[in-house]
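note to self: dont lose this again. the chain is below, predicted strucutre after it. 213 aa total, dont forget to put it in the shared folder this time
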Amino acid sequence: MDVARLLAFSAVALALIVVPGPSVLFVVSRALSLGRQAALITVVGNAAGEFGQVVAVAVGVGALVTTSVAAFTVVKLLGAAYLIYLGVQTIRRGRAGVPLPTSPTPPRSHGRVVWQGLVVGATNPKSMVFFAAVLPQFVAPGLGHVPLQLLLLGLVWVGIALLSDSAWALAAGAARSWFSSSPRRLGRVQTGSGMVMIGLGVGLVLTSRSASG
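---
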């Protein structure tokens, strides 16, 4: 791997990741509605889903999604529908007035939270477009092993995303502790978090193929 290209990509990735976007908003909403531990698990799942997109780009599937209107639309609608579903469930929980548990999530729930984060990360068309359009620009074809170079760049992205999103999850989780002292206040937070997820889903529906980042 060309070191200069790797450092340049790291700088670009850092600049894009630290700015709050859909992934950060999703993680924060999960922290406020489910707690810090669930948010950190969501971060892992979301990062795994995004790396799955990198793998798809490395084997050529990403190019299909970004050039095919039908494929792009399917990915977009799947991600949007799932986000809206999670948002509705969170709002229903908040309106029911039942505080979410602050104790560690049971092992069975861990897998569910990871899966939810993975689906959201894997079906985000904006990151798919970014990976397919930008990653190849930082590859050095003369060095060979292009798929491996793409995977390495993807690992760099995931590493930075894990650190940045985890920081947001911890901060939001700390704020949730204050909200948890009042069931009514926590219910409002849950409702607001659900609305954020629904808004993200609607945003995906409106995403065009030219969008990136």
